[in-house]
Write a structure and sequence with these properties.
heterodimer; A: Immunoglobulin-like; elongated; B: mainly alpha
Chain lengths: 351, 219
């Protein structure tokens, strides 16, 4: 049987294993990768080629349906659908003479629905231009896209720029959550040390800070890889990237400060004070200043906040366990590091 | 009332010590002049946006050099004497007030020399003076507190720079942003919000430092 005190460690490991398996193996929902050409004119017969992602156009056969939908809700159905293979399909639309909105160029959303794949959506797939103000009036067969199929599979959402990298949500983000929890515990132990003067609290604060920095570095690396794939560069001088480097510098200075003391009692006291002071500057650094400037990250500069837009229910089933799992695992790492530091200190005392 | 009395006494002591030696102020004065000479010799003409950054960076380095001595003189028997006599919070408040005033004078000096050697790109004088004060206060809190840590470690002044530069970044970012507004480099309607954030950061750091200082002082 597992000892009582070890349950949280095992649950941390189990959660991480679950996150790795589920996070990497659950497929993405089918989506539309690109449309060629992506523009057209009012009144013409528009032929487009669609490239899908994780789609089964051939297999879907007769259950395939496709629409172009305007923002005001009006939509037209495809007049012809030819599946070339599982990922490529030719669609034909007859664009009405008078476009339903008032602007000269109107963006329309492409929807493709089938029983095998469910519904795939590409917003602003095609830009339609109304060249002359009024062409001959006509009877437009407006339809309302409905009766969407549900293939019942468990999938992660497909987002155009993100693609498969959406899985990084379960690693990059929980690592930051874990880091903040670890730094928070480091502060709690620093405060404990200043109140009680117990040497073990000082070592615990050091261990939590070390694992916190480790998590921060991992968060930075996973973030840089993600940025390379979505923003195009490992480092974009994004405000959040910069501020986290500053945060890590602050904590790196903590260890330089530790190294510059001979007397352990004095070292513990001064470093505890520095740790608390450093943590209080993290709050403006990570939570206030990045919100004032434009950022490529979600949640600032007009990007949607981290919320219902970014997480669907399937993702939540992996994301929340990931946060808990990585945090528990971080605590386990810290307790191992603490025991190592304690043994090291014991040996120094013996020498 | 008694607290105020002690703080004023300590403040008087700081000013007296400075007035007797004039070492800090004259050393820093020369430092400022030679830095500005180097800057103007190398840049020749300074654009307002460069001026903005340069001003705060020079002030940052001046502050480090001025603050590092804060606790160096408080060593040995004299500390023991103070310790038996004084409340650490009083010592810290007096140091912060003194250092804020010193930095405010120094920043006005830098500003004056900038005007003397070049020109004055500052359009909104009131706002600029306000952030000079808020900046001096924030720098003074951070550097004074960290100088007290460094003084406990018998280390060189580089340790102060290593510890303080990352910690000062939130303050200096806000300062540069608001001062860009005072120079009319950007038009921003949210300047009062930025000022509120700067005040909040200053007060947060001041509160935390005030709570922690007694633990450092206990030696």
């Amino acid at each position: 049987m597992i000892e009582k005190g070890k349950i949280w460690k095992f649950s941390g490991v189990i959660l991480i294993v679950y996150v790795i398996i589920a996070g990497l193996l659950i497929p993405l929902k089918s989506g539309i990768e690109s449309v060629e050409p992506s523009y057209g004119n009012a009144g013409e017969t528009l032929k487009i080629q669609v490239i899908g992602y994780n789609t089964h156009f051939k297999e879907a056969g007769n259950s395939l349906r496709a629409w172009l939908k305007w923002e005001n809700g009006k939509a037209i159905a495809a007049t012809e659908m030819v599946a070339l293979d599982e990922r490529r399909m030719n669609l034909t639309f007859s664009i009405p003479n008078n476009l339903p909105e008032n602007t000269e160029v109107q963006a329309v959303t492409l929807l493709i629905d089938s029983e095998t794949d469910g519904t795939a959506v590409l917003p602003s797939a095609i830009f339609l231009t109304q060249t002359e103000k009024v062409l001959a009036a006509e009877e437009v067969p407006w339809v309302k896209p409905e009766d969407f199929s549900n293939n019942g599979q468990i999938t992660f959402p497909f987002r155009n720029i993100l693609g498969e990298t959406i899985r990084n949500t379960y690693f990059h983000v929980p690592l930051w959550f874990g880091m903040m929890f670890l730094f928070l515990f480091a502060v709690i132990h620093s405060i404990k040390y200043l109140r009680k003067g117990d040497a073990e609290s000082d070592l615990k604060a050091e261990a939590y800070t070390q694992t916190g920095i480790f998590y921060g570095l991992l968060g930075l690396i996973t973030g840089a890889l993600w940025a390379k794939n979505t923003w195009g560069a490992y480092w974009s001088w994004d405000i959040k990237q910069n501020m986290t480097v500053v945060a890590l510098l602050i904590y790196a200075a903590y260890f330089i400060l530790r190294a510059s003391f001979e007397d352990p009692e004095k070292r513990a006291r001064v470093c505890a004070a520095y740790g608390i002071f450093a943590f209080s500057t993290l709050i403006p650094l990570i939570y206030v200043i990045p919100r004032l400037t434009d950022s490529l990250h979600p949640g600032s500069g007009g990007n949607p906040a981290f919320g219902s837009q970014d997480l669907d229910n399937t993702m939540r089933m992996v994301f929340y366990p990931a946060v808990i799992g990585f945090t528990l695992f971080g605590f386990w790492l810290s307790s191992l590091q603490f025991r190592y530091l304690r043994l090291q200190k014991l040996r120094e005392d013996l020498d | 009332m008694k607290d105020l009395h002690f703080i004023l006494l300590l403040l008087r002591k700081e000013f007296l010590l400075e007035f007797r030696t004039r070492s800090a102020i004259s050393g820093i004065f020369l430092y400022v002049i030679s830095t500005l000479f180097v800057v103007y010799e190398t840049f020749v003409k300074i654009q307002p946006n460069v001026w903005n950054t340069l001003f705060w960076i020079i002030l940052l380095f001046v502050a480090v050099n001025a603050m590092v001595k804060s606790f160096v003189q408080e060593k040995g028997n004299r500390v023991l004497y103070y310790y038996s006599l004084l409340n650490p919070s009083h010592v810290f408040i007096a140091k912060i007030v003194y250092n804020t005033l010193l930095l405010l004078v120094l920043s006005l000096l830098i500003w004056g020399l900038f005007i003397f050697f070049g020109d004055n790109p500052v359009k909104d004088m009131g706002l600029f003076l306000l952030i000079l004060f808020l900046g001096s206060f924030g720098f003074s809190v951070t550097f004074t507190f960290l100088a007290s840590l460094v003084a406990a470690s018998n280390q060189s002044s580089t340790l102060l720079a290593v510890l303080s530069f990352p910690l000062i970044i939130p303050i200096i970012l806000m300062l540069v942003k608001i001062s860009a507004h005072a120079l009319r480099l950007i038009q921003d309607t949210a300047v009062s919000g930025d000022l509120a954030i700067l005040v909040a950061i200053d007060l947060l750091l001041c509160g935390v430092a005030l709570l922690l200082f007694p633990f450092i002082w206990r030696d």
